[in-house]
Amino acid sequence: MTLVLRGVAKDYGTTRVLEGIDLSMEPGEFVCVVGASGSGKSTLLSLVAGLIPASAGSISLAGAPVTGPGPERGLVFQSGALFPFLTVAENVAFGLRLLPISRADRERRVRWYLGEVGLSSLAGALPRQLSGGQRQRVAIARALACEPAVLLLDEPFGALDVQTKEDMQLFLRQVWRDTGTTVLMVTHDVEEAVLLAQRVLVFACGPGRVAAEVPIDLPAYRALTVKRTSSFLGLRATVEDLVRSHMLTPEREKV
Amino acid sequence: METTPGDDRLRPGRVQFALLATRKVEALMSARTVEPAAPPDEGRRDWEPLPRRSDRPGQLRRRPPGSGASAGKDRSGGGGPSVLARWGLRAASVLVPLTLWAAVSMAGLVDPTFLPSPLAVLEAFAEMLGSGQLLDDTLASLGRVGTGFGLAVLISVPLGVAMGTSAVALALLEPAVGLLRYMPAAAFIPLLIIWLGLGEPSKIAILVLGVVFFNTLMVADAVRRVPGELGQAAATLGARRGEILRKVTWPYALPAVVDAARINAAAAWNFVVVAELIAAESGLGYRIVRAQRFLQTDKIFAVLVVIGIVGLLIDVALRLLRDRLGRWVA
Question: How far is B60 from A220, CA to CA, in rounded Å?
């Protein structure tokens, strides 16, 4: 199912935070959006998720317009937003419980997703007992269990330490391969975007808009060591320069 | 430029090349070198250094233990009084006033009508217990407070949930509830007697009035504190508004709602004396009023102690319930 945004804009009162967003995603694509803080990246995700209405333009998935939130557009929040009063397994089963499927079917699916994210042994744990990385895995499993056409991630690894982050990045690509879901991820980490995506969209501020698009010509299968290749470094430099040139405040030159 | 996985291995010769390549790329980026030159003058602070305080900062402040869901667990982390010391302090808080009281009474410093001796109180207690009067009174009062408080919960919880989730309900109810909350329930007694007579209904109505508005506001608060993100997450998983309320908002708010009930149950229990001023014929509050008429202060004391203990037991029971329901709270 294709995700199509045409001329999407968003106003908060008299301030236009997003303008003229045109975006089209093919099924199975992995696209990252980068940009400085305040460029409206998170607003974009909220619009696609259907949590807020667009002020102008149209958003459609497989031809059907987006009018509200739904499981076909799964969203992973920066904070995870796990239900603290439910166990890990119950969290993952949440969306499934709303559907008319048998208990056995539901439990089988939950078990598969827990295995996929490597948390089978923690199925009965409560969110407060988990680390940040584990919580994000549960959040991803929970969204994926509803078999979304598009998986939206809002800076999911922002709060993690470097090692966990690298782990999670590889894990996300693996999950993307295994499920074939279309992924749209927002991040402020340029290196992460170049490592994970097939295309990187650079957002500019005031008002937020797509300033540039960088196709990522890296191998289909990437290990962490790809970060040391010259092609990676070149792409990263390109994207970083694009991000910096579209920031709101000029940077200090020498410190 | 496509590279095969084999190219990425870093052999010694390639390290040099990689370093060169990296430096070249960096040079291509806007020059950002770290120079050992002096920093620019703007930005230097031109005032006197801050004074320092004489006492040592950074002393570990000990959090008072025993609040919230951590009640009972040793949360002092080694920084506060030991568990034994704390029990000693608790015992002292009861025994010291008791001993003082006994001493004052035995020394005959006060008229026994004003301050009966602990022994006299104990005797009055034993007498009421033996005659079965104490049990009857306690059950009567518990029944009234139970009914009144139960009714108040049935009214306040739905209203509170509505106020906490719907802006319309909030705008509609908040002014009325806010105003009524400040009207003392005791002042309603004459009205209630006129409306409902002198029987049980008026007593229960007083208990309800004394608690329902406060509880509504506290429940609304508890519901409002549910993080909005959770509702959004549920929506993106396919939940409809009613499902979000039942499966997310309510379970999250439940421990706080039970806590509000705990606080208001105590208030309702305290209120039993006021309620039983309305021509009661049984109950602990009634017993106090009667004893007052005959200046039987020893009886008054005894009943007060019973009221206090029963109140404490109610509090402990609800605390346990809240802890059980709130095991997931971080």
Answer: 53
Count the alpha carbons within 13 Å of A23 in the hemisphere toward its beta carbon: 32
Q: Look up the domain containing A224 and give its range.
A: 3-245
Tell whether B194 is within 8 A of chain A (Cβ): no
Token couple for A230:
């010259």
Instruction: Put the strands of the sheet holding A3-12 in their side by side order.
Output: A15-25, A3-12, A56-61, A64-65
Number of domains composing chain A: 1
Of A69, A83, A219, the CB nearest to B2: A219
B96-325: which CATH architecture? Orthogonal Bundle (1.10)
Domain-by-domain residue ranges, chain B? 96-325
List the single best residue of B1, B3, B4, B237 to mutate versus A (max A Cβ within 10 A).
Answer: B237
The torsion angles phi and psi of A192, rounded to 5 degrees, stand at -60, -45
Query: The complex's ipTM?
Result: 0.91
Task: Give every residue of chain B whose pLDDT is below 70, as ranges.
Answer: 1-43, 56-79
The answer to whether position A175 is within a domain reads: yes
Residue A251 in any domain: the answer is no
d(CA B180, CA A2) in angstroms, rounded, equals: 56
Say if A55 falls within a structural domain: yes
**pLDDT tens for residues A57-76?**
999 999 899 999 999 999 99
In chain B, what residues touch A237 (CB-CB under 8 Å)? 25, 28-29
Q: Supply φ then ψ for residue A184, to 5 degrees.
A: -120, 115
Token reading at B40: 């620019």
Name the pTM for this structure: 0.81
Q: Which site among A45, A153, A230 would you substitute to test the B interface, given the most B Cβ atoms closer than 10 Å to its Cβ?
A: A230
Burial (CB count within 10 angstroms: exposed 0-12, middle 13-18, buried 19+), residue A232: buried
